[in-house]
């Protein structure tokens, strides 16, 4: 944490140990409310709906493959985890009885962040219901929402403000308002609010919206009495995406009060340099900032004020262009460092998974405003494949997840457990693996985007279209799309040709076996216009090649990639004290897909996909030459 307060790493040692992308899909499914007034006097006023719409998460079903495997493990955990244990501190906080065993980790009764995981759980259960249609997830969440509603109703009798809902006393809010030490109270409240909104949007839980609206009124009442200077001082303490969830609530309800409250969480110290296109991120706690920027793009949608969009776009360009490692993650020791410091910032605490969770949320939203920028999707694929997919332990039936992904030579992934971690990344981990369907496809009125190569089936209800995508990507560099049901009208199918493909010559696109005479420039969408019929089959094949990707601060330090797949050296139980020196001309394919052999430090080493490398030490970066 910034400003000398208790850091997460510190707290992690002490204890032993924000809002679904799918929300955005739900938001676009609802008509805009008429008569919206400006966020600030004299400011532009209109909502700006993204030109590209997301599908509801419930319109996409994963088919068997590594993403579905991860989802299934997280689903097992969501079914297993005892909600009463996670509700224990909420109930005790308002004097309601609870005999449940308290949780450990960051949910322990004496940890100031307690309650955040219950919010993540609500989002994850909403996504699990939407992604699978299994009403057991909806029912489990419904019981949690009812329990939270009872806690909220008991708040005044416990001496708290009307609408207050938390697992810690309201005095934590006094402390953050007064500049006294406290961990991150609004961070936690954001998770609960986002979970409630997701329950409403994805699981149709009306009580969740009622609880959220009452809680938002409490936030407004608390912040009504603070001066701008006092508010801005308070915003130096991590507050998650408070501006995001309140802007989203405004987009859902049309109630101007929520937008007014949202803008109170616009952090000028962060927003102003970004609006002036200045990278002043060095030294800031990374994941404290990213949710504020997701809030900015939602505030752009809510208000039409271009400044919000400029802030979000410049932030993305800056972070992805100058602060991002080969696996799509950012931060070392949870902080941003000097621009382009990558080779000089390798450790066991690189690339916190929450940061990447949040960058993916930001990325998909920016793509929806500018679908010509394939670099958004290239980043999305890289981070999803090389960090998020590999952040879950495949040996764990409950889908235990990583906090950091270590990128120092000799690093090894470590994982959460059932009840004694509950770090931030445990929470976003529950969310990551229940929403893989959210960015594979997007659409406009007359075009369908196929962005990611993940086995899945899309149902586009408005167009009567059912499309099945079968692929073993990236093991095989191809995908096959079958129209299972067609509406009988013309539709443009926009297939992503990634920037990593080994030249336009290596791309082959067929429709019903007939090669299509289309230009397949790497880093573009190829458009196929047709009246689609049931039984039509589109096949896309792409060439992959080996690349050695230099770090910006040291061209002799490189990562090895095959197509989009980041490769890492398998070092078993052997620790390393320095980057291994790799002989690039020794890289040789083995008979096994995506697996290579090479000489490094005068020994033979196997390089395999980093996302699939677990329970052994690895090297992602190499010294070349
Ligand atoms: Zn985290």
TrEMBL record:
Domain Non-reducing end beta-L-arabinofuranosidase-like GH127 middle stretches: 448-544
Biological process annotations from GO: carbohydrate metabolic process
PROSITE patterns listed in its UniProt record: TAT
Superkingdom of origin: Bacteria
Coiled coil, from the record: none
Keyword DNA-binding listed: no
Protein name, UniProt field: Glycosyl hydrolase
Organism: Goodfellowiella coeruleoviolacea
Record lineage: Bacteria, Bacillati, Actinomycetota, Actinomycetes, Pseudonocardiales
């Amino acid at each position: 944490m910034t400003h000398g307060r208790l850091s997460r790493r510190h707290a992690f040692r002490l204890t032993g140990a924000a809002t679904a992308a799918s929300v955005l899909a739900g938001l676009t499914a609802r008509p805009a409310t008429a008569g919206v007034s400006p966020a600030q006097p004299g400011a532009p006023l209109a909502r700006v709906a993204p030109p590209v719409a997301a599908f509801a998460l419930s319109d996409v079903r994963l088919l068997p493959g590594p993403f579905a495997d991860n989802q299934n493990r997280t689903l097992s955990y969501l079914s297993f985890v005892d909600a009463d244990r996670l509700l224990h501190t909420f109930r005790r906080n308002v004097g309601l009885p609870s005999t449940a065993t308290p949780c450990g980790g960051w949910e322990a009764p004496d940890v100031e962040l307690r309650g955040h995981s219950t919010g993540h759980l609500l989002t994850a259960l909403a996504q699990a219901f939407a992604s699978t249609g299994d009403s057991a997830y909806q029912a489990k969440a419904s019981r949690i929402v009812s329990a939270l509603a009872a806690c909220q109703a008991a708040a005044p009798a416990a001496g708290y403000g009307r609408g207050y809902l938390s697992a810690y006393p309201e005095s934590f809010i006094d402390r953050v308002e007064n500049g006294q030490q406290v961990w991150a109270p609004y961070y936690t409240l954001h998770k609960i609010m986002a979970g409630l909104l997701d329950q409403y949007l994805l699981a149709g839980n009306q009580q969740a919206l009622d609880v959220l609206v009452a809680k938002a009124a409490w936030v407004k009442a608390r912040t009504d009495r603070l001066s701008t200077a006092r508010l801005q001082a308070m915003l130096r303490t991590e507050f998650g995406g408070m501006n995001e969830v309140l802007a989203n609530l405004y987009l859902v309800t049309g109630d101007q009060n929520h937008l007014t409250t949202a803008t109170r969480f616009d952090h000028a110290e962060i927003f102003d340099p970004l609006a002036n296109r200045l990278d002043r991120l060095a030294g800031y706690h990374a994941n404290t900032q990213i949710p504020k920027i997701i809030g900015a793009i939602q505030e752009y949608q809510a208000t039409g004020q271009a400044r919000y969009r400029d802030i979000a776009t410049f932030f993305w360009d800056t972070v992805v262009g100058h602060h991002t490692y080969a696996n799509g993650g950012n931060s070392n020791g949870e902080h941003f460092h000097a621009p382009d410091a990558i080779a000089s910032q390798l450790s066991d605490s690189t690339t916190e998974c929450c940061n990447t969770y949040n960058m993916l949320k930001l990325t998909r939203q920016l793509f929806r405003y500018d679908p010509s920028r394939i670099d958004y999707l290239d980043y999305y694929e890289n981070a999803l494949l090389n960090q998020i997919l590999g952040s879950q332990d495949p040996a764990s039936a409950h889908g235990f997840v990583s906090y950091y992904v270590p990128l120092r030579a000799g690093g090894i992934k470590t994982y959460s457990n059932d009840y004694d971690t509950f770090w931030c990344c445990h929470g976003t981990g529950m969310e990551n693996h229940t929403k893989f369907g959210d960015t594979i496809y997007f659409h406009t009125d007359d075009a369908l985007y196929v962005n990611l190569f993940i086995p899945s089936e899309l149902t586009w209800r408005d167009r009567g279209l059912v499309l099945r995508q079968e692929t073993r990507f990236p093991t095989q560099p191809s995908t096959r799309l079958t129209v299972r049901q067609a509406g009988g009208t013309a539709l443009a199918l926009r297939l992503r040709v990634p920037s990593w493909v080994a030249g336009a010559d290596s791309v082959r696109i067929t429709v019903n076996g007939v090669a299509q005479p289309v230009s397949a420039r790497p880093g573009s969408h190829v458009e196929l216009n047709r009246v689609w019929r049931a039984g039509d089959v589109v096949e896309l094949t792409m060439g992959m090649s080996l690349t050695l990707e230099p770090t910006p601060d040291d061209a002799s330090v490189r990562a090895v990639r095959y197509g989009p797949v980041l490769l890492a050296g398998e070092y078993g139980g052997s620790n390393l004290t320095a980057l291994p020196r790799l002989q690039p001309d020794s890289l040789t394919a083995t008979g096994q897909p995506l697996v290579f052999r090479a000489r490094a430090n005068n020994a033979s080493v196997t390089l395999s996909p980093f996302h699939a490398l677990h329970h052994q030490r690895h090297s992602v970066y190499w010294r070349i030459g």
